[in-house]
Amino acid sequence: MDETHTIWIEKYRPQKLADIVGQDEIVERLSSYVKSGNLPHLLFTGSAGVGKTTAAVTLAREFFKDNWQRNFRELNASDERGIDVVRNQIKEFARTMPDGGAAFKILFLDEADALTTDAQSALRRTMETYAQTCRFILSCNYSSKIIDPIQSRCAIYRFRPLGPDAVSEEVRRIATHEGLTVTDGAMDAIVYIAQGDMRKAINAIQGAAIITPTIDAKQIYSITSTARPDEIDELLSLSLKGDFDGAESLLAQLLHERGIAPNELINQCYRALLKRDMDRGLKVQLIDHLGETDFRLSEGANSDIQMEALIARFVLTTQKGR
Q1: CATH 3.90.1300.10 assigned to 229-320
Q2: Which architecture does CATH list for 164-223?
Q3: Is residue 44 within a helix (H) or strand (E), and if so which, with residue range?
């Protein structure tokens, strides 16, 4: 197969459990299921890009070998959230016998937290009825959105965000395979942007590699439309000094000239504030302002007005504390 135009996320997706990085404890426990030849229902929970889908697919590969595609089906619950998808597609797959002498089949339901409560109740009954012929692997970002009867029937695996070492290891492996040179600054930028999400990291390096085989930090921040950490620190410093004009000018540059999304700036400011050495009471107030602005944007408020108002609140809060 020609992989010239393959998306790197798929091109470098691990094919074996042992190839999954950053989730060693989970990989070890999943491998024990393969050795025993049996599998309970599973619930994978964690943020995006940490290996939930990869773990489900590689687990099916190792259980069923060459017959894995005939005994494994993946559905995305966010496409069809209602009870009909359980009554029709899920039930139809679960009730048929496994192929190739397998003891059971695996149905992987991605973004299961998107299912309605009624659909989850129907899914619970399906999991009970067809437990002999089908094992269910549910994946979600928020386990709290999965009803308790389903959670109690599953072995729960909580995937943590990937650490800097795991992200760097995978990026270096891809860079070596593709003949790329990634500077130390670029690696730091990729780790900063990824925030434990391997998909973000791989997309960043692929986007930069299209332009040049020598990748530096500037390219990474530009391609991903992300502000550099020093720019965020400067924005906060200007605000905390009471320099509204300077902060407003930098904000306009980041939003309009660089095209950085307001929500991304809020997220970066939040990360920078958490690490900043400052009066704790002031830090609490500033984070509260960030949360209020984030909520207003989610409700559809004008982004320019809200971001300007955020800087104004920072300035006013600092002046009150003097």
Answers
A1: no
A2: Orthogonal Bundle (1.10)
A3: strand 41-45
